[in-house]
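Inverse folding, one chain.
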């Protein structure tokens, strides 16, 4: 009998949002909308398509393993050294690399109990102890998280803004937390939704790198830039950390198409601004409609909203699918709904009202 690595026996499999094609087939609906995976409803910049079209004829070449052109463009855009950048096939790839580089049997890692599940999944694969600290009203309980750190802690994960709750940590609170974490612990600041976090006290995390060399920031082109299907993300950290994590990176982990698309996307900041403006308008629409329905929610600093569905989240998920609406169920009554185009959001609320009335 085949013997698998013992640590993966009880590892949960990450389940992505249902694809539209599957819903059309299974539920017999004529149309469906996907508001489950926090994708950009505007798609991506037209400049990205132009760059991809120009590069198609070069696909027989292996990609640049160092992502040299993207590295130069991004370091200039962010104002960091090229040696401070690490690229991955989306944020998940970077999470896996960091976990593989730092975690092992006998070590532990600290995270919020309500946050992105891939931190836990990758820690379990690496045989590390996972210390999940219950969230405090949708926020990271930073005080309790800091108390959970000990000599065997290798990584503390902070998702800011947090997925799935959409809440954020202000700069003063974040700095106070980092100052309480020992220097031997890597603090991973996952900023996948960084572009949407418009709060005035949202941390300038790159500036914090100079003071805290044990900090690593993860960002992505999947969300605001609309490149989720191409899988391209990046980390920013001290050069020494990047050099060590780079040892576990696969040689060609980011495709050449993803690299040229990211460069083009970076150049079109007008598109990003339009994305943020649409998102703000649709969040305001959601707040208004949910207030009218008397449903509770967390104010969001992302492109999704975490809300009480008024019934079991799994039941709401299934019943919305029968109306051709795909959302993401979570614990208890809570569901996560991505911001779509206005007409898509209207469809969601029409379906939501039908389900609530039927109930």
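Residues assigned per position:
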């Amino acid at each position: 009998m085949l013997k698998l690595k013992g640590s993966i026996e009880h590892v949960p499999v990450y389940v992505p949002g249902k694809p539209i094609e599957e819903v059309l087939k299974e539920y017999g609906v004529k149309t469906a909308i996907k508001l489950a995976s926090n994708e950009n409803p505007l798609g991506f910049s037209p400049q990205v398509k132009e760059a991809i079209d120009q590069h198609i004829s070069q696909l027989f070449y292996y990609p640049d393993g160092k992502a040299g052109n993207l590295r130069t463009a991004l370091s200039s855009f962010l104002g960091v050294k090229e040696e401070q950048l690490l690229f991955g096939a989306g944020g998940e790839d970077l999470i896996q690399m960091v976990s593989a580089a730092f975690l092992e049997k006998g070590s532990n890692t600290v995270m919020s109990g309500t946050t992105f599940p891939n931190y836990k999944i990758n820690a379990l694969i690496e045989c590390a102890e996972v210390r999940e600290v219950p969230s405090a009203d949708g926020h990271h309980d930073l005080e309790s998280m800091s108390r959970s750190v000990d000599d065997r802690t290798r990584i503390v994960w902070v998702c800011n803004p947090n997925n799935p709750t959409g809440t954020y940590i202000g700069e003063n609170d974040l700095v106070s937390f980092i100052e309480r974490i020992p220097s031997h612990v890597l603090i991973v600041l996952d900023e996948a939704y960084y572009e949407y976090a418009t709060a005035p006290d949202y941390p300038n995390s790159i500036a914090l790198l100079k003071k805290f060399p044990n900090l690593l920031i993860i960002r992505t082109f999947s969300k605001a830039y609309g490149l989720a299907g191409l899988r391209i993300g990046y980390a920013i950290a001290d050069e020494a950390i990047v050099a060590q994590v780079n040892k576990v990176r696969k040689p060609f982990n980011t495709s050449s198409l993803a690299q040229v698309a990211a460069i083009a996307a970076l150049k079109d900041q007008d598109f990003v601004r339009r994305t943020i403006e649409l998102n703000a308008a649709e969040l305001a629409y959601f707040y208004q409609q949910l207030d009218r329905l008397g449903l509770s929610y967390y104010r969001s600093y992302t492109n999704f909203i975490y809300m009480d569905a008024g019934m079991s989240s799994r039941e709401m998920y299934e019943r919305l699918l029968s109306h051709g609406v795909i959302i993401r169920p979570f614990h208890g009554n809570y569901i996560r709904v991505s911001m779509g185009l206005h007409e898509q959001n209207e469809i969601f609320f029409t379906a939501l009202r039908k389900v609530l009335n039927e109930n």
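The CA atoms of residues 313 and 333 lie 4 Å apart. Residues 269-293 form the longest helix (25 residues).
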